[in-house]
Fold:
Amino acid sequence: FKWKNMKKNFTVIAAGGLGTRLKNYKNNEYTKVLIPIGKTSMISQQIKQLKNWGYENIVIVTNPEFDKLIKEDVKGNFPNENIEFVIQSEQLGIAHALKQAKPAIDKGSQISFILGDNFFGVNPFANNKSIYSDNSAALVLKKVNNPEDFGVAVLENSKIVDLIEKPKKFISKYAVLGFYKYEYECFEIIDSLKKSDRGEYEITDLNKKYLNLSKVNYSIFDSWWIDAGTPERIEELSQKLI
Structure:
């Protein structure tokens, strides 16, 4: 997988969440991304998949409590890989997690940003290079039965007209999946965000800024996708990755 204009691409993994819903799952005393999926941890499974898809220059965003354990796990499984680590010292949302990677990313680069618990049957961007253009954001959408659990995109005439985080009323069946493409300029835009009602810098708000600039592209994903945030979804993921 190569960019058409060959800008350097960095791959940022958000692995700083504490996964509180999975505390004590299978005696899990750690953070969600260290839960075993098959024979290896969730984070190492994800790195393996990303590397198989050709993603390089990996930067992992951790949290202070589990940074050491995540590093040990990743370095143990990928001893020869040059993987960078940055710490999100406070849990202030997904856009804030992305911002922490800025010091590890070369100016002018493109950024692939994936949530540490999101897994995909195929690379969502492999056959969709055309949806990515300079200085824009690229999103991946999928029809779901539980849109209230996700950020959703409202489509009209095949265009995104609104993005809403976890809508209480039904407005769209298209969830925005946890894999995004941005450019280095995204850090400036993150700096302009305000905290949401729940006190976080939301990825949906970052994407809305791009939408307001008419700089959002998207594709609809038709393979399987799992947001492994519950025990049931982790069991499902284990079956898919065996």
